[in-house]
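Example 9 (inverse folding). The structure is encoded as follows.
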């Protein structure tokens, strides 16, 4: 069986399935996702970077956001490939961000939870070069970049579709009752959309609104894989909390030298998350 290598795909995107010894007709080859065309990936990256630069007014934030996004999505890719969902591919979406796409659904909700949290957890490694730049070269721009990376991963943990937090906590809530997951996702989704509108992130708010409507229209709320056991549900919550604390910790570590105190760093971080900033 041959498969394309790497998250960006290749020209050969099909799997050759050898015929079996059974006298039945062999199944047709299963087409694999070829991934985003390199030219369109480059154009999408430039559009996304330019948009972030225009909105933030900082090329450092734009570079950090793109780098953090790629590392974040590659974390999903590594987990997808590890749990038999690969070869996964990375797609860059102009003006919005990125996504990792698997070739098949997870075999269990527990695998799905681990895949969803792998992005924010692995994505924090993207901040290491920016912290290194601050200690070697100096300058607040490096810390601003590290803070941007931490916040990308932290915001992705919001339990609102289609963000990673909804895939990590959704199965836990559904184990209590399917309607609890649905109600929680809708409530948090409305709050996140309102947050985006109040802060002028209209494209993000529109995208999340469409995703929320799409989730509401789904016939089966949790269709994929074996459901969580009680132990896996507890571990899912624990992993989610640890990942969120790690993201918040990296954000505070980036703000601490700028604010001069832990209280000041926490105040700056809370100001970034408030409505209508």
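The amino acid assigned to each position is listed next.
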């Amino acid at each position: 069986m041959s498969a394309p290598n790497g998250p960006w795909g290749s020209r050969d995107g099909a799997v050759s399935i050898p015929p079996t010894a059974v006298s039945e007709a062999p199944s047709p080859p299963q087409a694999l996702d070829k991934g985003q065309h390199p030219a369109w990936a480059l154009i999408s990256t430039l559009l996304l970077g330019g948009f972030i630069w225009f909105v933030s007014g900082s090329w450092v934030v734009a570079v950090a956001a793109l780098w953090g996004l790629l590392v974040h999505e590659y974390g999903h890719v590594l987990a997808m490939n590890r749990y038999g969902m690969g070869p996964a591919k990375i797609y860059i979406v102009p003006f919005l961000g990125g996504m990792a796409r698997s070739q098949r659904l997870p075999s269990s909700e527990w695998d799905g939870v681990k895949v969803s949290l792998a992005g924010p957890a692995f994505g924090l490694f993207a901040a290491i070069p920016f912290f290194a730049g601050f200690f070697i070269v100096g300058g607040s721009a490096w810390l601003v970049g590290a803070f941007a990376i931490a916040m990308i991963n932290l915001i992705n943990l919001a339990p609102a579709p289609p963000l990673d937090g909804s895939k990590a906590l959704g199965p836990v809530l559904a184990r209590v009752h399917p309607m609890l997951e649905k109600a929680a996702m809708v409530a948090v989704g409305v709050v996140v959309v309102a947050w985006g509108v109040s802060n002028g992130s209209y494209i993000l708010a529109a995208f999340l609104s469409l995703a929320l409507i799409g989730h509401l229209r789904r016939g089966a709320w949790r269709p994929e894989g074996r459901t969580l056991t009680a132990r896996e549900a507890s571990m899912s919550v624990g992993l989610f909390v640890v990942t969120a604390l790690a993201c918040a910790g990296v954000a505070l570590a980036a703000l601490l030298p700028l604010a001069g105190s832990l209280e000041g760093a926490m105040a700056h971080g809370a100001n970034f998350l408030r409505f209508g900033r």
